[in-house]
Write a structure and sequence with these properties.
The structure holds 2 protein chains of 2 kinds.
Chain A lengths: L7 H6 L3 E5 L2 E6 L3 H10 L2 E4 L4 E6 L3 H8 L13 E7 L5 E11 L2 E6 L4 H12 L5 E4 L3 E7 L3 H5 L17 E4 L2 E4 L8 E7 L3 H10 L3 E2 L2 H10 L35 H10 L4 E7 L10 E4 L2 E11 L4 E8 L6 E6 L2 E8 L4 E2 L2 E2 L5 H5 L3
Parallel strand pairs in A: 3-13
Antiparallel strand pairs in A: 1-2, 3-9, 4-7, 4-8, 5-6, 6-7, 9-12, 10-11, 11-12, 14-17, 14-19, 15-16, 15-18, 16-17, 18-19, 20-21
Helix pairs in contact in A: 2-7
Chain B lengths: L8 E2 L4 E5 L5 E5 L1 H7 L2 E5 L6 E2 L4 E7 L3 E5 L4 E6 L2 H4 L3 H4 L8 E5 L2 H5 L4 H11 L1
Antiparallel strand pairs in B: 1-2, 2-3, 3-9, 4-6, 5-8, 6-7, 8-9
The chains are: A alpha+beta, B alpha+beta.
């Protein structure tokens, strides 16, 4: 039996089918993954993501410590409430985890890390924090609910603690509300909030969301939504064996500020050596479904699908793949022994409920 | 609770067989199987004329989650795959025992069908797996 969030009983009562995810028993869907996906694209859905771990970092040395720990530059977080996405790297540039860091106030930053990596992340952070004036606290007393969709903020805001200034939040920023914490962030490509709150308040908030018409959504829809939004999944699209540069995450690595972040030398050496593999978006042009680990054949050598699914919004199969640097625009994917044509496209595939320009057009023109 | 029609035969791997008056059979996956798979998004059905052995992987059903093989419940020759599934894979979710059938087969031997599970045995099998 895996670990359970405080909403475990509520999930069972709502008809959830549970799966193991990173050692946690989590809902994969509550009946129909596709309908949950559409609910988030068209209205609002709620995800229990309390398996993810909140880590608070406090002390005078926090900012310089994070400048060393993270490949992205926390110096960009100039105002309290701002959030930043970053990878945390090993010395050899391998990705230990990807995370969001929130600047709450001077001497106080908050990280949200993945469930399956939380223990190793904490051990790494604590080992690196030695010698810095930093206290590391895993906040297992907090749960997280993501409320996502074009209608999410409107339906969620009245359910937050009285006086919570969440209605004024700019995208990718956050605010404390007493012992709650509300961020205008997410993993779906839609507007919405991620609400961090005491576990005791979790069941009440969850049932209030459902009573207000928000659809409960499982990890299945979370995966199709994030892939349509072109977002990486740790463990599938990157892990400790690859660097952010070969994971489509070069944009999250801040070289220009001259910081000596962990992994910097390895990334610079990789760039200097050249021919860095790249993570690209794929649109399957034939019928079928891209899946992780499928072989990709390109003119420049072979690569591999790292994430693949059927996109409910596009009604086509999409994926991410790690390919040789010189791969052209057209590749073939080995699906059960047959090589099917796929086109390289630039993620995201879907933003705010619609296909992005250039994702589908070429194929439509080629129709008779 | 999943549906198990009394007039069909079943396999432990969750396929069903319907005997038709002309001696051919329809095969598909059970209500339990479609519910476990979730929303189906792609189905690869066998082509007519193909000879299959009992237990051969002869079709593929893919849900948003994963791809799964479908095994031929009996040996025989494929008369036709259900081409409607190419554009409407969700028929398997909606009518697993009806329009969502996977293929029609000409059985190699009628006796093999008699060796499959009946509805009561399949129901017991489901209970044992739960």
């Amino acid at each position: 039996m895996g670990q359970r969030t405080p909403l475990y009983d509520a999930h069972l009562a709502a008809g959830a089918r549970l799966v193991d995810f990173g050692g946690w028993d989590m809902p994969v869907h509550y009946g129909s993954q596709v309908e949950e996906h559409h609910a988030v694209r068209r209205a609002a859905g709620a995800f229990d993501v309390s398996h993810m771990c909140v880590v608070d970092l406090t002390g005078d040395g926090v900012r310089p410590f994070l400048g060393r720990l993270l490949a992205n530059d926390v110096g960009r977080l100039t105002r309290p409430g701002k959030a930043l996405y970053s990878c945390m790297l090993r010395e050899d540039g391998g990705v230990i985890d990807d995370l969001i860091v929130y600047f709450i106030q001077p001497g106080f930053f908050r990280l949200v890390v993945n469930a399956g990596t939380a223990d190793k992340d904490l051990a790494w952070i604590r080992s690196q924090a030695a010698g810095h004036a930093v206290e590391v606290t895993a906040r297992r007393d907090l749960g997280i609910v993501a409320v996502q969709g074009p209608g999410a903020r409107a339906v969620c805001t009245p359910l937050l603690p009285a006086g919570c200034p969440a209605a004024d939040l700019a995208p990718f920023s956050a605010t404390p509300c007493g012992d709650w914490f509300v961020a205008r962030t997410g993993y779906t490509g839609e507007d919405g909030f991620e609400v961090i709150l005491p576990v005791g308040a979790l069941p009440g908030f969850w049932s209030a969301l459902l009573a207000a018409g928000v659809r409960p959504c499982g990890l299945g829809a979370r995966d199709t939504l994030r892939l349509e939004a072109g977002m990486n999944l740790y463990g599938s699209d990157m892990d400790e064996t690859v660097t952010p540069l070969e994971s489509g995450l070069a944009w999250t690595v801040a070289f220009s500020d001259g910081r000596d972040f962990i992994g910097r030398a390895a990334l610079e050496a990789q760039l200097a050596a050249g021919s860095v593999r790249r993570l690209v978006g794929l649109l399957l042009e034939d019928r079928g479904v891209l899946r992780s680990h499928q072989r990709v054949v390109t003119a420049a050598g072979e690569g591999e699908v790292t994430s693949g699914t059927f996109s409910p919004t596009l009604s086509r199969s999409i994926g991410l793949a790690r390919l040789p640097a010189a791969a052209g625009d057209r590749v073939e994917v080995d699906i059960r022994g047959r090589l099917l044509p796929a086109r390289i496209v630039k993620p995201p595939f879907v933003r705010h409920g619609r296909a992005l320009p250039g994702i589908l057009e070429t194929t439509e023109e080629s129709k008779p | 609770m999943s549906q198990v029609p009394a007039d069909l035969r079943y396999t432990r791997s969750h396929e069903w067989v319907r005997q038709l008056p002309d001696g051919s059979v329809e095969v598909g996956i059970t209500d339990h199987a479609q519910a476990a798979l979730g929303d189906l998004v792609f189905v690869e059905v066998p082509e007519g004329g193909r000879t299959v052995g009992s237990g051969d992987a002869f079709a593929v059903v893919e849900s948003v989650k994963a791809a799964s093989d479908v095994y031929a419940p009996i040996a025989g020759e494929v008369i036709s795959g259900n081409d409607a599934l190419a554009t409407r894979p969700e028929l398997i979710n909606e009518e697993p025992y009806g329009q969502g059938y996977i293929a029609r087969l000409r059985p190699g031997s009628a006796a093999e069908i008699e060796g499959l599970l009946d509805a009561a045995q399949y129901t017991a099998h489901l209970a044992s797996e739960a």
